Amino acid sequence: MKYLITSFFSLFLLAGCATRTPNTQKQATEFAKGGDISWLPQMEATGYTFYNDQGVAQDCFQILKDHGFNTVRLRTWVDPSDDPRSGHCSKEETVALAKRAQKWGMRIMLNFHYSDSWADPGKQKKPAAWEGHDFPQLLDDVYNYTFDVMTALKAEGIYPEWVQVGNETPGGMIYPEGSTANWPQLAQLINKGYDAIKAVSPMSKVILHLDQGNNSQRFRTWFDNARTHGARYDVIGLSYYPYWLKGNPDYTESIDDLGANLNDMAARYDKEVMVVEVGGEDNKPQNTYDMLVAVQQKVKAVPNGKGLGVLYWEPQGARSWSKYGLSAWGEDGRPTKALDAFLVE
Question: Is the whole model's pTM more than 0.85, yes or no?
Answer without folding.
Answer: yes
